[in-house]
Amino acid sequence: MPTSRRDVIKAIGAAMLPAAASGPVFGVAASPAPPVLDPAKAAETEAFLAQFEPAWRVLDPQLRAVLGSIYGGLQGVPPPTELSPSELRRINASLTFYLTAGAPPLPHIEEREIAVPSGRARVRLYDPGTLAPAPTVIYIHGGGWIYGSIDTYDGVTRQLAARSGLRVLSIEYALAPEHPFPAGLDDCIAAIRWAANEGASLGIDPQRIALAGDSAGANLALAACLSLRDAEGSPVRGAALFYGAYSLDFETASQKAYGGGAYFIGTAEIARYWNDYLANEANRKNPLAVPIRADLAGLPPLHVAACECDPLHDDSVKLAAEAKAAGTEAELVVWPKMVHGALSIMGWIDAMGPAADRAAAFLKRVAEAG
I need a surface site. Which of 2, 249, 253, 331 has the fewest CB within 10 A? Predict the structure, then answer.
């Protein structure tokens, strides 16, 4: 009898470590590998995870189990602030087991390479079976501007395509610190323009484009909306922004409550990511780098999602409030008992299904309105 997802969650929550899983094969969602018990490390891992239990009691039970497995697997690894960009990228790529769980198969997936200011970038289209020309969501991945790829976000983009019924174009961009601001943003804007001007070859309707992004990707999606608004003739009809980094305020209530490192991301590493992304003091004052500084009037509708137990929670609350005050349609949704990155591990967490469906419904509404 096949192992169910709940059985896997139960097993990994009991200090069973997953076998190494290969990355997603292009066009095919990777399946979680069965857990493998490591008796020699079980007691050590249990003691290590015990320090997080008081903080995790407020979280969704399924989320707690997944965090326990991820944190257990990273036991002994230095904190993110002490890791090089290449080490962070390697660790992120190694989490495929968690990031692709539950990702649905789709009838058509196609990858291209396009020209962007930094050189060449991959884009990957996920088609749930819509007729062309079709409304399309352009997805900008997260990863602190330092790591992440269309491969590590294969699960997220499959989920959004299946749940929204829209085509999804996942894009890559130049990463910091090798390519600090504005290189990544410039690549994202170029990819959006490519989709509008040349995306017909992928069945993209240039009049019905929406954006979505999480964490650093939400920052880039919002900054792209701002830049395209100011350039006039923006093709973007709306944007779903998931737990983004919009300000340099590390003293918010949510940073103080959830920034200690138990909730998947901490204040110290957020500061490190910002420092790698922004090469000089002038960039820290640029509204395209720090969007909370921007004039938020005249933007397309925004779906702003925050996780309750996330140091960046208050960034989203403030963004939604200021966007509304500027006259922009903005809906704030708080995902209870969730941590930063919840969308990426939604295949393990039943409560994330309705949250993703609500975001997908928003994207469908704004993209189809054209």
Answer: 2
